[in-house]
Design a protein that fits this description.
The protein is an alpha/beta fold. It is built from 5 helices and 7 strands. The protein has a 5-stranded parallel beta sheet, sandwiched between helices. A two-stranded antiparallel sheet has the order 4-5.
């Protein structure tokens, strides 16, 4: 009697996302959005300050960091290089600032993308997926 060969399906581990924003409503909304993606991505942590973001990035080693520009008076863009020095995450700047110089500075400092907070939920999710598949 011959047995059928059934392929073994392996699921990729979820994309681990660290959210860095000082606004609780933004953290809650983006967390709900990411968690709605089920097993493909999850929020690994939240950080409302630069110091907390640096500590969490080192300890949880996220795949993606979604970083706000304005962290309650701290410049989120100043964090980019320090975050990259502490982990291998890709950084997506998520901001309400639309000035081209903000985008240019973020990309120059090492962010892989800049997404407006006015963008659709789908655009943010697509940016996270795209950033997680960028070859090193």
């Amino acid at each position: 009697m011959e047995h059928a060969v059934v392929p073994c399906l392996t699921l990729a581990p979820p994309i681990k996302v660290l959210l860095v924003d000082d606004q609780r409503a933004i953290l809650a909304g983006v967390t709900a959005l990411i968690e709605s993606e089920g097993p493909t991505m999850r929020v690994a942590g939240h950080a409302p300050t630069a110091r907390h973001a640096l500590d969490l990035a080192r300890s949880i080693q996220p795949d993606i960091i979604v970083l706000d520009v304005d962290l309650g008076g701290e410049d989120g863009l100043d964090l980019i290089q320090r975050l990259l020095a502490g982990c291998d995450a890709r950084i997506i700047v998520f901001t309400c600032h639309t000035a081209p110089e903000i985008r240019a500075r973020a990309l120059r400092l090492g962010a892989c993308d800049v997404i407006s907070k006015a963008a659709s939920a789908g655009e943010l999710l697509a940016a996270i997926r795209a950033a997680s598949s960028i070859p090193e």
